[in-house]
From TrEMBL, chain A:
Biological role stated in the UniProt entry: Component of the EKC/KEOPS complex that is required for the formation of a threonylcarbamoyl group on adenosine at position 37 (t(6)A37) in tRNAs that read codons beginning with adenine. The complex is probably involved in the transfer of the threonylcarbamoyl moiety of threonylcarbamoyl-AMP (TC-AMP) to the N6 group of A37. BUD32 has ATPase activity in the context of the EKC/KEOPS complex and likely plays a supporting role to the catalytic subunit KAE1. The EKC/KEOPS complex also promotes both telomere uncapping and telomere elongation.
EC number of the protein: 2.7.11.1
Protein name: EKC/KEOPS complex subunit BUD32
Coiled-coil regions listed in the entry: 162-189
Gene Ontology terms describing biological process: tRNA processing; tRNA threonylcarbamoyladenosine metabolic process
Major site of localization recorded for this protein: nucleus
Domain Protein kinase, chain residue ranges per copy: 20-311
From TrEMBL, chain B:
Protein name: N(6)-L-threonylcarbamoyladenine synthase
Cofactor note: Binds 1 divalent metal cation per subunit.
EC number: 2.3.1.234
Location (main, coarse): cytoplasm
Length: 311, 361
């Protein structure tokens, strides 16, 4: 099979004239490219998520899916903002690039136009902060560096574990407890954020610690920056990336949402996994009806097919 | 070292012989013979009848394979058989044959996971070292990536396999099962032009196929396309070449085309998601549906856009065969695993990630 070189599609209007220093590619996921840009004034940052057309798909199918998904994402976000849930606000959306005006001509025109769209985009409020994944990973490294005992046998962050403190850098037991309290507080707020989302009638579909932002937390400027300092864990927890979200109030869907987060947590933060119960406690306290969801979660965990998947 | 592999998890009975030269040269295929139990149009294969077919053919095929490989039983180091997953009765027929050969020739047995067999054969033939694997066949649909001694399943079907969906739709349309229903759907789909609306059911990294089958079966009935073919069918097929696609009544070809486009898009999408997740650029397609050229084409476009490559094989290696069992079995045998006679059972459920892959780093 041949491998031709691929260049990403040019930015769609109205972004094609945006100077490149105001348009930074953040990530390229399976579905979309995420850019950081500005909105209205150069000092207002915004997140632009472009869903390019997928050339492998049949044009009509591609157009249908791209349109349905970007609209779904926008609708969920708008609903959540209205309900007061911490998510980025939608600034603008184009579900069918270059074709918004002649939408009613029918997709399957013959001739040169094979009915393929040009993708879609959604422009959102920029959330300044640091993803929870990075915060927790920094915290785990900090604890590890400060609690490694002389025997080197530090396993996990067990509460009240006896440690040999033979240097200033090592943390005392009560300090470790303080540190754990801090991360437990963060995890509870994560649970509360997910609870608020579910209460508003939306399930996320792809909850991971990468899709949670701690607003205001400082992003480490470079690799290894901010090491040796316990990361700040103040600030609101904001949910992002609603590309797989849907509107549902079913216990089943909500429980699967929590299960996905639990799996992702286990594979990303093995040292902090024992504290995941705090997320569920935060969730339990966040709205009426959380009890039956947590009960359902126990059933979801038992399912064989999913048991051996890794997240 | 030489191994002989017996494969019988579905309607194909395969016998293959592989050699791993002692001087470290690349492994070679010495023989790859297969016989397929083909049923009339509109019928699937039943376990009982399929097993009877396999029992009737297994001795003939083993003899033929030995002749082709120009070896005698005493050259063989181990006898590999499919332990699962698959249909119970057909699996048993080859397991019995393998036990018999083991006792007759005094050779060790190695039970092999069918899915791992596909993956190892695909890796050997294409030279792909560590790809994301899409395994698509009549009984299995999985997206797999290797990580620390296991082939991990990242996404899979929540109900029926993609090949099963295609085969059953072929039955609805009374499409021939010779050489394979999926192959005939592929040929018919090349004539299709109109895309009918079908459910598109990707759930995270998993997919669901049963609703799509129900939907397209419903459409076939609605347009009177189920059941036997009429003589004027060709005329009806040509009608769809008119320019008014929008209002034209779909033909059998259009339905096959739509089904393929929809389910293959879903497969490519979950594969892409797994590739983004594990950060791999290469993709390997294995299993019977993997020799579909449209699926290979779509996957190729996706891989190209991610700066990677697609690895696929043809029907000799994609469709169930004996050499893949011989290959995976020999790898296990060389790393020291064998199956004792009393453990040489087979099982219908045997997950890919249950196998401890001792032979990879």
């Amino acid at each position: 099979m041949t491998t031709e070189t691929y260049t990403p599609p040019p930015l769609p209007p109205p972004f094609h004239n945006t100077p490149s220093h105001q348009m930074h590619l953040i990530t390229q996921g399976a579905e979309a490219h995420l850019y950081k840009t500005t909105y209205l004034s150069p000092s207002t940052p915004a997140a632009l998520k472009i869903r390019p057309t997928k050339p492998y798909r049949h044009p009509i199918l591609d157009r249908r899916l791209t349109r349905a998904r970007v609209l779904q994402e926008a609708r969920c976000l708008v609903r959540l903002v209205r309900e007061g849930v911490n998510v980025p606000a939608v600034l603008a959306v184009d579900w069918d690039i270059n074709n918004t005006n002649n939408n009613h001509n029918g997709g399957a025109g013959g001739g040169a136009d094979d009915g393929r769209g040009n993708g879609a985009w959604i422009l959102m409020e920029w959330i300044e902060g640091c993803v929870v994944r990075v915060v927790i990973q920094r915290w785990e490294r900090y604890i590890k560096s400060r609690s490694a005992s002389a025997s080197g046998g530090s396993s996990g962050v067990g509460v009240g574990a006896k440690r040999q403190v033979d240097g200033e850098v090592k943390l005392q037991d009560n300090e470790i407890e303080e540190e754990e309290k801090k991360v437990k507080g963060l995890l509870r707020r994560v649970g509360a954020a997910v609870g608020a989302l579910h209460k508003a009638g939306v399930v996320h579909g792809d909850l991971t610690t990468s899709n949670l932002i701690l607003r205001g937390a400082e992003e480490p400027a470079a690799e290894g920056d901010g090491e040796g300092v316990s990361p700040d864990m103040q600030g609101e927890v904001v949910l992002i990336d609603f590309g797989l979200a849907s509107q549902s109030i079913q216990d089943e869907d909500r429980a699967v949402d929590l299960y996905v987060l639990e799996r992702a947590f286990g594979s990303t933060h093995p040292r902090t996994e024992p504290l995941f119960g705090e997320v569920l406690e935060g969730y339990r306290a966040s709205y009426r009806g959380s009890g039956s969801v947590l009960k359902r979660l126990e059933d979801v965990r038992m399912r064989g097919r999913k048991r051996s998947m890794i997240g | 070292m030489i191994s002989i592999g017996l494969e019988s998890s579905a309607n194909k009975l395969g016998v293959g012989i592989m050699v791993h030269p002692d001087d470290g040269k690349p492994p070679q295929v010495l023989a790859n013979v297969r016989h397929t139990y083909v049923t009339p149009p509109g019928e699937g294969f039943l376990p009982k009848d399929t097993a009877r077919h396999h029992r009737a053919w297994v001795v003939k095929l083993v003899k033929k394979a030995l002749r082709e490989a120009q070896i005698s039983p005493k050259d063989v180091d181990c006898i590999c058989f499919t332990k699962g997953p698959g249909m119970g009765a057909p699996l048993q027929s080859a397991a019995i044959a393998a036990r018999m050969l083991s006792l007759l020739w005094g050779k060790e047995l190695v039970g092999v996971n069918h899915c791992v067999g596909h993956i190892e054969m695909g890796r050997l033939i294409t030279g792909a070292t560590n790809p994301v694997v899409l395994y698509v066949s009549g009984g299995n649909t999985q997206v797999i990536a290797y990580s620390s001694q296991r082939y991990r399943i990242f996404g899979e079907t929540l109900d029926i396999a993609v090949g099963n969906c295609l085969d059953r739709f072929a039955r609805t349309l009374r499409i021939s099962n010779d050489p394979a229903p999926g192959y005939n759907i592929e040929q018919l789909a090349k004539k299709g032009r109109k895309l009918v609306d079908l459910p598109y059911t990707v759930k995270g990294m998993d997919i669901s196929m049963s609703g799509i089958l129900a939907a397209i079966d419903g459409l076939a009935v609605q347009y009177g396309l189920d059941g036997d073919w009429n003589d004027d069918e060709d005329v009806a097929n040509n009608a769809s070449t008119s320019d008014d696609l929008e209002n034209a009544k779909p033909t059998r070809a259009d339905l096959c085309f739509s089904l393929q486009e929809t389910v293959y898009s879903m497969l490519v999408e979950i594969t892409e998601r797994a590739m983004a997740h594990v950060g791999s650029k290469d993709v390997l397609i294995v299993g019977g549906v993997g020799c579909n050229e449209r699926l290979q084409e779509m996957m190729g476009i996706m891989a190209r856009d991610r700066g990677g490559t697609i690895h696929a094989t043809d029907e000799r290696f994609c469709i169930d065969n004996g050499i893949m069992i011989a290959q995976a079995g020999l790898l296990a045998y060389k790393s020291g695993s064998t199956t004792a006679l009393k453990d040489s059972t087979c099982t219908q459920r045997f997950r890919t990630d249950d196998v401890f892959v001792k032979w990879r780093d």
